[in-house]
Amino acid sequence: MHKAGFVNIVGNPNVGKSTLMNQLVGERISIATFKAQTTRHRIMGIVNTDDTQIVFSDTPGVLKPNYKMQEMMLAFSESALADADVLLYVTDVVENAEKNLDFLEKVRKMTIPVLLLINKIDESNQKELGSIVEKWHALLPNAEILPISAKNNFGTDILMKRIKELLPESPAYFDKDQLTDKPAKFFVSEIIREKILRYYDKEIPYSVEVAVERFKEDEKKIHINAVIYVERDSQKGIVIGHQGVALKKVSTEARKALEKFFDKTIFLEIFVKVDKDWRSSQRELTNFGYNPE
How confident is the model at residue 285 (pLDDT cuts 50, 70, 90)? Predict the structure, then answer.
């Protein structure tokens, strides 16, 4: 008997979805930083054993859209409700349980198994946790509630066991040696974007997108040319920094991370270009891969 299915991870921003995804998949698939709205796309990570294939799917944090890109991000999250065999709804010990009730109502109506994961329990105590569980049980009465700490890898083994129990019988959907549905270029842009999230403040990380224009790989090395797109000339100056220092730091840190990710020598060149209002342009967003369909 072989089991396989889609296990989709949803929830509000900054509750630890990407950290959980990386723990479950065992590889650094989703970028995880301290800033909200880190994940912009739906990213699959595939776990294979002889008799199971679990296709995990990380999604952007649920939010009320303010511009076109956020509309596309919400569409990624809502699409995860449509094709899940098991849904992981992630919250944490400090989040307002009634945030984004419209999305929560869609989860409540689902007929598939829903596992409600209360993350970051290391930041709470037993009494507080009991109160949180009661609130969530009232909101999602059909969900199975599991307390976890994704950062400390607490409860994830119990979670994996439960997921395997809930998976339907099915042949594998992907080749057994496949780790993700995304191409190598995607992870290059994500890793560069992660460094931007870490090293720039205020609106800069949310106003940039990264595109890989060249990816040439041989047995031992990879040559990469990437472009950081910003919305304004002033942002371009900030990203580059005085005498190019800021961009050099991002490039160096990204190259180190890419060498670790691909286990090869990386030659990386990064350029900065202005593309006004790319976050509101359907054509530009499509070019950057925002296609929830």
Answer: confident
